[in-house]
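Tutorial handout. Part one gives the primary structure; part two gives the three-dimensional structure as tokens.
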Amino acid sequence: MINRRVVLRSRPAHVPEPDNFEVVECPLPEPGEGEMLVRNLFFSMEPAIRARLDDRMTYMPPIGLGEPIQSPTVGRVVRSNHSGYEEGAILFGFNDWQDYVTVSEDTLLLDRVSAEEGVPLSHYIGALGGSGTTAYVGLHDVGGIQAGETVVVSAAAGAVGSVAGQIARLRGCRVVGLVGSAEKASVVTDKLGFDVAIDYRATPDLAAAVAEACPDGVDLYFDNVGGATLDAMLLNMTTYGRIVACGMMAGYNQQDRPPGIFNLWEIVARQLRMEGFLLPTYTDSIPKALEELHAWLRSGDLVVLENVTHGIHRAPEAFSHLMAGSTIGKTLLALDADEGTMPSVATLEQQIS
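Part two.
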């Protein structure tokens, strides 16, 4: 039985390239007492992975050369030594990028997936998983969103931003999305219902473009980017405005030379509140977030954007495309040939026996 793993081969100098990674074979893990053997079905491509590819400590330790890449995954239990999880159960958790992993109660973000009929399993690693709950928690628990406000979302065509903007719209806000191409601008206005989209790459003065789109100022800014985008937004916030710091993508590929912020005085002058957050801090809020996200999906109010790559050997390629900014929606990898032929438990048992 072959068990494949995606490991870090070399540290990227800037934007990751497929050659920075390697797919290697490794032994099939054996579940111990209280553990489960899980066959991964989907890997989540997360921009935050990039921070761990450099040899420096962030909020998680760096990934060492030869060590496996990690992110949220969705998989099926093949063997169980845990009375609470039966074979065939679908689990979400933070795991290594490999075919088979052992999972226990100590696995970060561990949760059982109760897949609804007609809902693609891939949604549970994106809009109905970490991306959707991050958007929900950021807007509500951190941002204190209120109906009638003006909300701006950066990386608005991405996994978190696309959901955050739709939630803001559903909460009765005016929503402006910041994106990196004309195609992405069309997607967020035509498919997701944003009121305005601004292509920052086609705009010589982003601060002026935001001021034109938001003449009364911005009440809530959901920031996935940082850098020059955050700098421009600081000039457009209302007094007592709030900035939700979800990510800093502008600096992920250049941690040795992070982009400068020059307008921080506006935090004082406008009496702003800026707060960063990590989803695991808000585990108590996740059930309510998932309840509402499911309801919006059922009613058709939530549109899910996905960018799926198939085959574990293409994981390095998929992640590199994400970090180059060329993807739309949730970027994820399906380990098997196509989403409609996920292996059954019986098939997986046969493979490992």
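Part three, for discussion. Residues 3-126+304-352 form a domain with the Quinone Oxidoreductase; Chain A, domain 1 fold (CATH 3.90.180.10). The CA atoms of residues 64 and 258 lie 22 Å apart.
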